[in-house]
Amino acid sequence: MTVFLNGRLVADSEARIEPTDRGLTLGDGLFETIAVRGRRAARTDAHLARLGDGAEVIGLAVPLGGRELRSALQDVIEANAIDFGVLRLTLTRGLGPRGLPPPVPAQPTLLITGASQDLTAQEPVTAVIATTTRRNEHSPLSGIKSTCCLDGILAAREAAKRGAGDALLLNGAGNLAEATAANLFLVIDATAVTPPVDDGAMPGVMRADVIRGLSAAERTLGPADLSSASEAFLTNSLGIRPLTAVDGEPIGDGNPGPVSAEAQKII
């Protein structure tokens, strides 16, 4: 694999991240997962806007401008001959001494990797409601793509142990927030609804397009709303996946529904 690291393309075997990089030692960084379709990065404007928003929240300057970032993304696509697949853009604060206070000025690390991947319609999935962790809707980190994904990892481990493909995370108030790495949509009374960002939902790039495409509503959803839904689906930048059961209870009739199928056309 050829990667983009701090301004140049290098073989992954030659790429070096310093041992004192704060992204490694403290999770002090951001990332974006970007789909590649037809040898082009998808929804780059939205991804780079969210990256910029996250960088502002944590007080980190993005080392390249939008045009340069787009060029770097395309360079990785071409270098690895990716027709359909995924890019991962990782931005950390870079090297730093021991301790939490960030270095001033920071010297950020920017890494872009890519790989081919089948992005056709994803298979339906079942989920559980996670009991090991919750989303903190009051934290500014709930709205950014932080490189610290341990809440999602804990929930995913729980899902696997309980025989499910994913987990839904509640927030501190006990309301539905999102899945481990995807946004949640329910279809209630023929209308697609999704938890608002204020409830701990990630401002997903695909989520935004689905809201526009389906005229979906944003409102607080509790676990009880799952029993009222005729169908459900999960969205992230790589696709849309029907959700057919939660905690062993079917959503609707337990099969993917027409609204999920309509949402998949938005990809």
- Tell me, briefly, the overall form: globular
Structural class: alpha+beta
Spell the H/E element sequence: EEHEEHHEEEHEEEEHEEEEH
Low-confidence stretches: none
What's the level 1 CATH class of the largest domain?
Alpha Beta
Within CATH, the superfamily of the largest domain carries the name D-amino Acid Aminotransferase, subunit A, domain 2
CATH topology of the largest domain: D-amino Acid Aminotransferase, Chain A, domain 2
Largest sheet: 9 strands, mixed
The percentage helix is 10-25%
Describe the secondary structure blueprint for this structure.
Elements lengths: L1 E4 L2 E4 L10 H4 L3 E9 L2 E2 L2 H15 L7 H14 L4 E9 L16 E8 L8 E5 L20 H12 L4 E5 L5 E4 L3 E6 L2 E4 L10 H10 L2 E2 L12 E6 L2 E8 L2 E2 L7 H7 L3
Parallel strand pairs: 7-8, 7-14, 11-12
Antiparallel strand pairs: 1-2, 1-6, 3-4, 3-5, 5-6, 8-9, 10-11, 10-13, 13-14, 14-15
Properties at a glance:
267 residues, alpha+beta, D-amino Acid Aminotransferase, Chain A, domain 1, D-amino Acid Aminotransferase, Chain A, domain 2, 2 domains, nine-stranded mixed sheet, six-stranded antiparallel sheet, 23% helix, globular
